[in-house]
Design a protein that fits this description.
Elements lengths: L2 H23 L7 H16 L4 E5 L5 H8 L3 E6 L2 H10 L5 E3 L14 E5 L10 H11 L5 E7 L4 E7 L3 E8 L3 H10 L2 E9 L7 E8 L4
Parallel strand pairs: 1-2, 1-4, 2-3, 4-5
Antiparallel strand pairs: 5-9, 6-7, 8-9
Helix pairs in contact: 1-4
Length: 216
C-alpha cells in the first residue's frame, strides 16, 4: 500500500467527517470507565516520570487531549487531518493542536514526557508500524510512558462510510496485542501492562502500557 495514498485517503476522509465525528465523540469517555482508568494511570505515569509536554498523536477532535489536560497533563494534539485540528481548536481553544503525521513526527528528539496513540494506529499499514514506533521512541524522553489503544483481532477492512453517512476511504486494521508488543520491543520500548476491552463482544479492543527504555 502506497504511503502517500493511504495517508491522503485518511486525511481526506477525516476532513470530511470532522464535524460529525466530533459531535459523536464529544462525550464518549463518559460511559467508558475502563478507558478513563487507563488514561488516569497514564497521567500518573507521566507525573511520576517528572512531567512535561505529552503528545496525543492522532488526536482527532481533541476530546482525549482535553481529558488528559483535566488530569493535570500538559497535553497537546497532533492530527493528519486539518479539518479535525480546526474542530479541536474550536472546541478546546485553551489547548494546542497541530497538523502533522505520525509517519514523520515534527518533534525534537527526547522532547516529550509521554505519548498517546488512542485508536490512531488503526489506519497505518503493518509495514509502516515499525517506523512509526521508531518515531515515537525518538521523540520520547528515556523512561517516558506510551499508551496505545487499538482494535483487537485479525485482518483489515475498507471503511467507505461513517459518522453521519459521509463517504470515507480508510482501511481499518485489527491486531493482536502480542504482535503490537513485539513491534514495541523492537522499537526500544518495554511493555508493562495490557488491558483487554470487551474481549468477547462485537468490537473488542486492547490497550498497551509501554515505556521508552533508558539507554545504558
Amino acid at each position: 500500500m502506497n504511503s502517500d495514498g493511504w495517508l491522503a485517503d485518511t486525511r481526506t476522509s477525516y476532513d470530511t467527517v470532522a464535524v460529525s465525528y466530533a459531535d459523536r465523540l464529544r462525550d464518549a469517555l463518559d460511559d467508558k470507565p475502563y478507558l478513563r482508568a487507563a488514561l488516569a494511570l497514564f497521567a500518573e505515569a507521566v507525573h511520576d516520570a517528572g512531567g512535561g509536554p505529552v503528545a496525543d498523536i492522532g488526536c482527532g477532535p481533541g476530546h482525549v487531549t482535553a481529558h488528559l489536560h483535566e488530569l493535570g497533563v500538559d497535553a497537546f494534539g497532533i492530527d493528519v487531518s486539518p479539518g479535525m485540528v480546526d474542530v479541536a481548536r474550536r472546541d478546546h481553544p485553551e489547548l494546542r493542536f497541530e497538523v502533522g503525521s505520525m509517519t514523520d513526527l515534527d518533534l525534537v528528539d527526547a522532547s516529550i514526557a509521554g505519548a498517546l496513540a488512542f485508536w490512531s494506529l488503526i489506519h497505518v499499514p503493518d509495514d509502516e508500524i515499525p517506523a512509526v514506533l521508531d518515531g515515537f521512541r525518538r521523540a520520547l524522553r528515556p523512561g517516558a510512558p506510551l499508551l496505545i489503544g487499538f482494535h483487537m483481532g485479525d485482518g483489515s477492512r475498507l471503511k467507505t462510510e461513517g459518522y453521519g453517512g459521509h463517504p470515507m476511504k480508510v482501511h481499518v486494521h485489527r491486531r493482536r496485542p502480542a504482535r503490537l508488543s513485539a513491534w514495541l520491543r523492537d522499537a526500544g520500548f518495554t511493555v508493562e501492562a495490557e488491558m483487554l476491552l470487551d474481549p468477547e463482544g462485537s468490537a473488542p479492543g486492547a490497550i498497551l502500557f509501554a515505556r521508552a527504555e533508558r539507554q545504558g
